[in-house]
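Extended Data, panel c. Modelled sequence:
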Amino acid sequence: MRSYLDFEKPVAELEAKVEELRAMSETDNAVSVTEEIGRLESKAGLALKELYGELTPWQKTQVARHPQRPHCLDYVAGLLTEFVPLAGDRKFGDDEAIVGGFGRFRGESICILGHEKGSDTESRLKHNFGMAKPEGYRKAVRLMEMAERFGIPVVSLVDTAGAYPGIGAEERGQAEAIARSTDVCLGLGVPNVAVILGEGGSGGAIALATANRVLMLEHAIYSVISPEGAASILWRDTTKAQEAATNMKITAQDMMRFGVIDSIIAEPTGGAHRDPKAAIASTAEAIAGALTELKSLDSSALRKVRREKFLNMGRVQTRIAS
């Protein structure tokens, strides 16, 4: 059953009417309502297109968090064949908020890792809503270092509200684990591509997204803190999250304008949750294109290009500020 966001109410009403007419047309004595169904479907499609053509940053935040949006494991299943998942950081334990392993992407070996939020109550608890602990980032480090050892490209799928802030995580060195993962990303001698699937939150996202190419889905968000967190700090009022989202510049379009990401992956009309297969197919094309661009670069060139990419962000911001 499709779940609708608050701002999608006009579309929800039209689509509900379509379903009513379809049910009516299936009864034995029903009058043909095919023409009316077609008219309402066209109207709903147009309303959806117009609605998603001018989403506000807060509405994009809601879309990025949609419970039916495809998550990391959905992409892994759609992108890879012969996938072999690996577990554990060889230091403390396994963190299922970050999943990863090796497989084949269009016939080529690849290392893939990312945040998994889960799709129902049971899986969300299992994966801790995609909020990783230190052992999750240390698992990512282990996989990236293994990929480099065998000359295998790395693809990171980012979708997290942020790293887990619990006491146990802090006691086990959350900040160090995030910093170490970021450092390994920067120093990789193989191509790495990151895709922001939904939420790219804080250091929890950066730990996997410090890549040669950073791609972002059209209705994803990428920020140093959640809108609710920013509103709580700035105004001590989480109800101002909508205002915070607007001022924080967190959308894919903002990130592209600031040079933080390299390209935007178009989503199906109505968001990735309406047509996951199409969203995954578009993401596959974008990843393939990015890897092809990087294929000709040797290890030193990959490191240099990646380093300059992130240094230039600071230089651009400094010029704007001055």
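The beta strands are 81-85, 98-105, 108-115, 154-160, 192-201, 213-217, 221-223, 263-265. This feature is highlighted in the accompanying rendering.
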